[in-house]
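[Q] Does anyone have a clean structure-token version of this?
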Amino acid sequence: MSNTEKMTSNRPYLVRAMYDWICDNGLTPYLLVDAGQNGVRVPIHAIKDGQIVLNVAVRAVSDLELGNDRVRFHARFGGVSQHVDVPMPAVLAIYAQENGQGMMFPVEAEGDVLPSSETPAEPEKPVRKGPGLRIVNRPADVGGQVTTILPHSSFRIGCPA
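[A] Here you go.
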């Protein structure tokens, strides 16, 4: 692959890595999801302000699958078992419920990634005077600090209960 071709999204790899990290530390992984994106299948009554927070701890879900294109599992909402299906671009954050530590993701529309046979136009390179940092604002729901770690490749996930 040449450096002019767009790579696939790193979001699924980071979600899996953060999930493992949160579980390995004995905490409860939560997903913040944009419920308005196409293909999101979640209980409508649990949506607030166009978003839903999902507890994805092993004790709260069954058949959890953190795939490259979507997150799927079964969970009980109001005592009723329901299938949840979330396209990966709709995942806005993954964080530990107890302390808010985790990672937020930029808004990514479905289909943002080009097939490898297409070559995008060469973007103009910005003029940089040196390294720089910027402040990233997070919703109050997430809190804590943003943590970046290396990706992990497991597909079916389980935390110690």
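[Q] Thanks! Anything notable?
[A] Helices lie at 11-24.
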